[in-house]
Design a protein that fits this description.
331 residues, UDP-N-acetylmuramoyl-L-alanine:D-glutamate ligase, 9-stranded mixed β-sheet, globular
Length: 331
């Protein structure tokens, strides 16, 4: 793998996703809240996996999805995340490297197995995720490639990873390295579940260390504990250089200083699976941003990328994104 500088580097959970279609009765039977992400232990993961219907295993993880899509668009990207020395770890490493992403993080030799996320997709296209974090939460500051971060234009942090002390320390160290080098830090809030668990720390991150924030409507409202989207926009405008806020079928709102850009959602013939929509949105937005495109154009590319992934099962694109975005751009 080339050691040349990358445009963005993602730091997040290295997870293998197992996707399976299911009925809502299955969720009720196992006391799972539809549309949520629940952390589970390895024994529960094995039990639930045995009870699920036929599944498809693909490399995933929120930041990893974003980074892989960014590379698929033609960008230069790196990823930092922890996998174990097992079969799923080998699958993850092979898959992400095959997209052209630089992934050099050392393998965990003595510890839990590689993380996996069981994604249950109901007929309404909502995804319910049960995640065993395994090896990925063992990421520590010592795993950071400081040269990679210092040379990347943007370091992209995944909120899902922000759970264990060593991972938090890695986040803070990555922010220090990036800013010392005059580069930007981006954060995805990932899930309202994450915001509820880490609200005070996320607020501190957003106010003091984050330049670019990605969040959906529920997440940003939860972060500021407000009732309306407009109130949340008012608050985040004071804290981040750029905030890209998604609102499902309502499109997205991008704020930067006093500037507000509203972007329509790209049309989709049929929503099949919403897994990865936010990840693809971030990829498209960052692709445009690293090429100094106007915020409206960044948002348009983001919406097109998100529309591609929700039209099929799985969190990674099935279409040539570079060709898709170029085709749409030319219309």
């Amino acid at each position: 793998m080339s050691k040349e500088p990358v445009e963005i580097v993602g730091i997040g959970n290295a997870i293998v996703d197992v996707l399976s279609r299911t009925e809502e009765e299955f969720l009720s039977l196992h006391q799972l809240t539809k549309g949520s992400m629940t952390l589970i232990e390895e024994e529960q993961a094995e039990s639930l996996y045995q009870k699920m219907g036929p599944g498809t295993a693909v490399s995933g993880g929120s930041a990893a999805n974003t980074i892989a899509a960014f590379a698929a668009m033609g960008g230069k990207a790196g990823f930092i995340g922890k996998v174990s020395n097992d079969q799923l770890g080998k699958v993850f490493r092979h898959d992400i490297c095959a997209t052209g992403v630089r992934f050099d993080t050392a393998t965990l030799e003595d510890g839990p197995s590689t993380a996996r996320c069981l994604i249950l997709i109901t007929p309404d296209a909502q995804r319910t995720m049960c995640t065993f974090l395994g090896a990925c939460v063992w990421l520590a500051p010592s795993d950071l490639d400081e040269e990679l971060i210092a040379n990347a234009g943007i370091t992209y942090l995944e909120g899902y990873l922000y759970d264990r002390p060593h991972a938090k320390q890695a986040f803070m160290r990555a922010c220090e390295i990036a800013h010392a080098a005059g580069k930007k830090v981006a954060l995805s809030l990932s899930d309202a579940f994450c915001v509820d668990r880490h609200r005070d720390e996320f607020l501190d991150l957003v106010q003091k260390h984050v330049d670019i924030l990605f969040a959906n409507e529920d997440e940003i409202k939860s972060l500021y504990q407000v009732k309306t989207f407009e109130e949340a926009v008012y608050h985040v405008r004071q804290h981040c250089h750029i905030a890209a806020l998604t609102r499902s079928e309502k499109g997205s709102v991008i704020v930067s200083g006093e500037e507000t850009v509203e972007v329509a959602a790209a049309p989709v013939a049929k929503v099949v699976d919403t897994t990865g929509a936010g990840d693809m949105y971030a990829a498209g937005f960052l692709f445009g941003l690293t090429r100094d495109m106007p915020l409206a154009e960044c948002g348009r590319l983001a919406s097109l990328a998100a529309a591609e992934v929700i039209a099929h099962v799985g969190a990674r694109p099935q279409t040539d994104l570079a060709a898709l975005l170029q085709l749409k751009k030319a219309v």
